[in-house]
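User: I'm putting together notes for a lab meeting next week and I want to include a structural view of one of the chains we've been expressing. I don't have a solved structure, so I'd like a prediction I can at least talk through. The sequence is below, exactly as it appears in our construct file.
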Amino acid sequence: MKKISTFLIGLIFTCSYSQIAVIKDKDGYTNVRKSSQKDAKIVYKLKENEAFWYNYDDYQEEKSWIQVFIPKDKFCVTYSKDKYLRGYIHKSRLLPMEHFKRVLQNEVQLNYELKDFNRANHIDDGNGHLVSKIDGRKIWGTDGSYPQKEITKVNLIVNNKEINIHQVLYSDLYACNEKIEAYKNKDTYFIMQKHSDGAGTYEVLWVLTEKNGLTQRLVEDISHEHF
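Assistant: Thanks for the context. Below is the predicted structure for the 227-residue chain, given as structure tokens.
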């Protein structure tokens, strides 16, 4: 996968589609440890097909233990600087998304219904020219400017079955396009998108199963460095 940008969380690593992974473990879960030692304290248990980010440099350098960044909010609805749980898993338990099965184009369909953004219908912290929050939430897809369009509905169809996407999971997303990269691991689909208004570039990962619907939504800014 092509590297897109660099951001910093503890260590600097490149954030691209290939920096998202799940575990591969016959037990169905993997222990996340506080440090890169096999007897270090267990701080979390990653479950099968639970998506997370990982340190690409650790992986490329073939280190035995890979640093991982697990979102504390599995739908990334809340936003704070301390939004990740950091830890390490053994490299043998890491399955990067680029190794998943690619999904045929007609198997997954996604499109957005849009309307013009009307500031009068929202509460924001801006001055009419620059804004960082709308309706109390961080906005994705602008570099401080007001969005031109807003989403009214997300239509997501998998194998002719409609997957419900609640408004809270798209009301903070702006400058969206309908280009997707779709993958599958066992019964779970991973639908990746990169959106931008030309400056505020970010990526969204929708994780779902036909049986249970949406199980995760990961969102991350890939246009700036993070600390």
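A couple of points you could mention at the meeting. Residues 52 and 164 are 22 Å apart (CA to CA). Confidence is low (pLDDT under 50) at residues 1-18.

User: Perfect, that's what I needed.
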